[in-house]
Amino acid sequence: MLAWLASSGLGAEAGSPKDFATAIPPIMANLRTAASYARTGNVALAQMEIDEALAAWKRLQDSVIALPPPYAPAALAEFLARDGERLAAVARALDNGDTAAAGRELLALRRSFHELRRQAGLYDLGDCVFEIAPAMERLRVAATRFGEQPASARAEDTVAAAGAFRDRLQRCNDWASADVSGQGEFRRLIDGAIASSGEIAHAAMAGDGPLVHRYLIELQSYAQLLDFRYG
To answer: What pTM, to 2 d.p., does this model score?
Structure first.
């Protein structure tokens, strides 16, 4: 009977996470989904994701006593306390209908988590995909300036930013496990983004502002989908 209780989980507190490593991924998935909903103005759906994340975070704070390696105990304890407050700030912003503030807090929280992983010497596809955003923003700025004035210098900036973005995508492709790399969804997203980053560079060199804009929108969609699914 004791063995059955242990295997079924009935002998433990319902919903309590096994440890930080197994409890945090579902919370991060909630945050990615909430950020996507907030970005598109779906406040009620974002609130549902944040409510789930808050409940899971509370269980995690209550259950983590012996902090697991490779995380430094002090760093992990600080992360749980500080970013628990940040998560509560997201909830308040959504309650007030301020999706912009909620988005900023969500981004800061996710950045804090990836920094915690870096401090622990951890890195995987999710970390790589999260780091796509700055490269995408540089490309957005360069391509937007080129669209406003398709001059030669601005074309060069767009080409350079597109190349940097493509390099980042290729790095993430290299970090994907064999299981993920073989998924049709991953291949469509990563291969499509890599191809479009080359096309936006060609469009900029040809001086075609409208085509650069079209590829920019396409690349932003690829980046958002990669982050939503694999970040």
So the answer is: 0.79
